[in-house]
Amino acid sequence: MDAAGKKxxxxxxxxxxxxxxxxYNEVVLRAELADRxxxxxxxxxxxxxxxxxxxLQAELDARIKATGHQNAYFPLLIPENHLRREAEHVEGFSPxxxxxxxxxxxxxxxxxVVRPTSESIIGEMFSRWISSHRDLPLLLNQWANVVxxxxxxxxxxxxxxxxxxxxxxxxxxxxxxxxxxxxxxRFYEDVARNVAAMPVIPGEKxxxxxxxxxxxxxxxxxxxxxxxALQAGTSxxxxxxxxxxxxxxxxxxxxxxxxxxxxxxxxxxxxxxxxIMTHGDxxxxxxPPKLAPYQAVVVPIGRADSLEASVREGDALVSRMEAGGIRxxxxxxxxxxxxxxxxxxxxxVPLRLELGPRDLAAGLVTVANRLTGDKDQVPLESVESxxxxxxxxxxxxxxxxxxxxxxxxxxSVSDWTTFAARVSSGFALALHCGERAxxxxxxxxxxxxxxxxxxxxxxxxxxxxxxxxxxxYGRRVLFGRAY
RNA sequence: CGGGGAGUGGCGCAGUGGUAGCGCACCUGCUUUGGGAGCAGGUGGUCGGGGGUUCGAGUCCCCCCUCCCCGACCA
Length: 483
What we know:
The chain is α+β, with helices and mostly antiparallel strands. It is built from 14 helices and 23 strands.
């Protein structure tokens, strides 16, 4: 900084209000979450970003297993004709497929598709494994990578290859399968709200936004800090579409041969992009404590002897916190304290513990809160409990703040002018006729799309906000501009 | 695929025909350390690729490629 306070280049990040996209890209790169791969649309997830994914995975995996699902793994390569068996499914995915045509140096008789999702190969296997109602329900999940050729990639949000979890289940009845669809939707909601501190609106997709081949598609929609919507997880009831396409049949207890009802549901590394855009500020990332690779970082301060003393005490402090289940880290890099302060703020670490001669002399530690910016001193001996309490507080405050942000920008509207204005900087809850052509008109006029029909919306009848025809769905539809 | 930008050291940029430069980062040394440290010295570039014009091209001409942003498609 010079006397005028002008920033040197390469210091902070572009403010959100100046250019949200630039802010996002810079934060992802500067916080070392990810980098671009040599092939367009590919992403290298760096250790700090991958750790967030691992923490998210652990939370999600525990919920998946707790509801009776088992993990398995299916192949990356799928015969092209498998994919073709479900007409809508192929049609939906064919534009974004990567296809392998050469193997072992020879042109393949039949091209192999790199999975864009695994409904088809899992359907194929389900048909082999299921023959009796006693085999049902079959509840599987896999953690995998998938490839969808993206025209306009963005780190985490839309990459050509991404990581996710895909659940696939088969049931005897529509009721069971629908119940399963909602179980999955509920644990996505739970993970988003209570782990990522991301308020979400669960609801059903309109027919125009439905997954290719699904009978019903459910989603959790979140609002980013630029007021745009992000689909953070989806759950599909496939009806008997895939069962018929892949011949997934069973003999019922009454002796009749029936088609199964199947489901699939997924949450991906896109969720990390959602976390960045839900909580981040102009100083960089702000991570919810439950997903922060480091929940507390100790920065030792001092010169020569006093630095050694700080490091020694910091080391002991980190050990105590780790023993107490807190993810803590001592920053021993030989750069200035000020640099470290900014660096850890960029990386979104919830709590920074500054430990210098002044603190040590008084038996204190300075605790800086990433969310509020507050700095307080706490006695060395009670750091562990203070940190634990602060982490819980920050987790709660982050959800509260994000909820407030979303609520402030979401409103029920019933006339077209108000709708257009609302949707330009938030979400509109409006009645809609349910016609695809009308949805399309809304998109053309406002760039907003129907995000979902929120499950929580009360029953309501009336006229479509745009065309005035009788409303469909029996409740309001959530509209917003989406990622 | 449409519109708009940009390709020069790891990053950000300057360089309108005449010996490739600056800041940051990096390396070495010394001094430093409570909000992005200072000084000194140093390493590093087939200027996105190919062709052409010219005595001479980062610079002018032609072709191609890539990346970013905004739209259409999507977790």
